[in-house]
Design a protein that fits this description.
The complex is a heterodimer of chains A (260) and B (264).
Chain A (H helix, E strand, L loop, with lengths): L6 E5 L6 E13 H4 L4 H10 L6 E13 L3 E5 L6 H9 L6 E7 L2 E4 L12 H11 L4 H15 L14 H12 L6 E5 L7 H18 L2 E5 L3 H7 L2 E6 L2 E7 H11 L2
Parallel strand pairs in A: 1-5, 4-8, 4-9, 6-7, 7-8
Antiparallel strand pairs in A: 2-3, 2-5, 9-10
Chain B lengths: L1 H32 L7 H21 L7 H28 L1 H4 L8 H27 L11 H25 L2 H16 L11 H6 L4 H15 L5 H25 L3 H4 L1
Helix pairs in contact in B: 1-5, 2-3, 2-5, 3-5, 3-6, 3-7, 3-9, 5-6, 6-9, 6-10, 9-10
The chains are: A alpha/beta (260), B mainly alpha (264).
């Protein structure tokens, strides 16, 4: 077991040359430890000295950089380490070794709607979720109408969220997460929720962030066409190892060819 | 210059944490009282009704020689409940916010501490019940009641420490979730809440010196029931116990928090 020396460096200002710099990042999970759920198992394994066996490398020595304003795609099959990479960049996970450096505030669009409380009304949830995302009360107040307009939910504001459809919940979540102009936007398969018209609206909003506000976008999708269409650069990861890094078109081409 | 920037970032982080904290407290508050006709009044009524039931049961069964027994009882009861409610809330706080922790980089300690703040609010409301009982028994409020905020500081620090500790342990060992309520039950019976401390065997009476809850409850009874001034030594003991518990809680929480999201 390597001793954890990994670092996550976060700077809320979009300074420097790169928005994201991932240097020699390795992420190791201890699978034996994952399965421990009771004290009894823990002591049994501790006595048998099995506690630190069974390592799993989710990411193995991955390095890349993303410039400000870039649209960067991550491709790879299921379980290749894409989501782990996003979690490292979002800062919810610290790398085992290596450095993950982020310059600029992040809006994560992973698992839309985490942090909502189904018993509260939409209005109350907008404030709660805004707080959790790091907005100030004044900011939410000033942009409240904007959020409600974007999600198109004027008629249902006082209704508890449990009475909403999942598509409606996703609309509110998207509206809250993108009301701010983030320096870095992480998009993870979220464009597949909501109806067709709302999907178009989401894509338009992301495009306006990219083109008008120079937002850096990290993009993960199973739709290789979408990555090809939207991204400038891309990385292809397979079983935690970098296969290819470069222009999105070339990476996507190589990725497609490998599966023929 | 650099330290100025540092202070500013620190301040903006604190401001953010505080807003998250108040938002979560107001969420818990709304959910607790939503759809109940009497609403917040329940935080006053509940301890009163509990006190009536308990004092009826215990004065019928044991006949302790305690003056103003219901007041003696309610003081111990609400302070002990503050501890159990806040730690039981804290216990699941990290596990319950799993979805959030996997998505947003956020100060994780907010979640267990928020439960303590929320329970402090409920405790403050239930003080109305204490006031009612004091009026009923014609206990004149003494200036010693001014020590109450100080006591609350000790108890809040103590509960925050415990809450941090159990919330972190519960992530790795779910046994803690089941054990904690049993532990609290045993703790409640070993602490002189319903009975006088003299009822305990000699060795347990001495052990009470090391029971923080007994120290806090004694303090509470001195200022609210007997109108006595707590000594400096007593204050130092309470403060010491609170600070040590908080220190242990912070230490354990900080050591474990980076691995939370692998286990929740």
């Amino acid at each position: 077991m390597k001793t954890p020396t990994g670092k996550y460096l976060f700077n809320p200002e979009p300074t420097g040359e790169y928005a994201v710099r991932v240097s020699d990042v390795t992420m190791m999970f201890n699978m034996a430890g994952e399965q421990l759920n009771s004290l009894k198992e823990f002591f049994l394994k501790a006595v048998k000295r099995e506690l630190f066996f069974k390592e799993f490398l989710a990411l193995n020595d991955v390095s890349f950089t993303i410039r400000h304003g870039d649209v960067f795609g991550l491709v790879g099959t299921n379980g290749s380490g894409k989501s782990t990479m996003l979690k490292l960049i979002a800062g919810v996970l610290d790398p085992t070794t290596g450095i993950c450096e982020v310059n600029g505030n992040i809006a994560p669009l992973i698992e839309l709607g985490a942090g909502f409380d189904m018993q509260l009304s939409a209005r109350e949830n907008i404030y709660l979720n805004g707080a959790l995302l790091g907005y100030s009360r004044d900011f939410i107040q000033a942009h409240f109408d904007e959020i409600v307009d974007f999600a198109e939910l004027w008629d249902f504001l006082e209704l508890p969220l449990k009475n909403y459809s999942s598509g409606m919940v996703a609309r509110i979540a998207f509206a809250i997460a993108t009301v701010i102009v983030p320096d870095i936007l992480i998009v993870d398969e979220t464009l597949s929720v909501g109806d067709m018209f709302f999907q178009e609206k989401c894509e338009a909003r992301i495009n306006s962030l990219i083109h008008e506000h120079n937002t850096t976008v990290l993009f993960v999708s199973h739709s290789i066409k979408q990555v090809e269409r939207m991204c400038k650069h891309a990385i292809w990861i397979e079983k935690g190892v970098t296969q290819m890094l470069g222009e999105a078109k070339e990476v996507c081409e190589a990725y497609k060819n490998s599966h023929n | 210059m650099l330290s100025f920037i540092f202070m500013n970032t620190l301040r903006s982080y604190l401001k953010r944490d505080l807003f998250v904290l108040t938002s979560l407290v107001s969420k818990d508050f709304k959910i607790k009282y939503r759809r109940s006709v009497l609403g917040v009044a329940w935080s006053v009524l509940n301890p009163l009704l509990m006190m009536i039931v308990m004092s009826a049961v215990f004065s019928f069964m044991f006949r302790f020689e305690i003056d103003k027994y219901p007041l003696y009882l309610i003081l111990g009861m609400i302070l002990f409940n503050f501890m159990t409610n806040s730690t039981n809330g804290g216990l699941m706080s990290i596990i319950d916010s799993a979805a959030l922790l996997k998505k947003i980089r956020i100060n994780k300690a907010i979640f267990p501490i928020e439960k303590v703040v929320f329970e402090l609010l409920n405790f403050a409301i239930s003080l109305v019940a204490v006031a009612a009982v004091m009026i009923f028994f014609e206990v004149a409020p003494s200036p010693n009641l001014l020590f109450l905020p100080l006591l609350l500081v000790y108890v809040v620090l103590f509960c925050a420490g415990l809450s941090l500790l159990v919330s972190a342990l519960a992530v790795f060992f779910r046994d803690v979730v089941h054990l904690w309520s049993v532990f609290c039950l045993a703790w409640m019976y070993v602490t002189p809440i319903f009975y006088p401390v003299t009822m305990l065997p000699e060795w347990l009476q001495q052990a009470m010196d090391f029971n923080p809850m007994y120290q806090f409850i004694t303090y509470f009874r001195m200022i609210a029931l007997y109108g006595e001034t707590p000594s400096l030594v007593q204050n130092l003991i309470c403060l010491g116990m609170a600070v040590v518990t908080l220190g242990v809680g912070i230490l354990v929480f900080r050591r474990m928090q980076s691995r939370f999201i692998l286990y929740v």
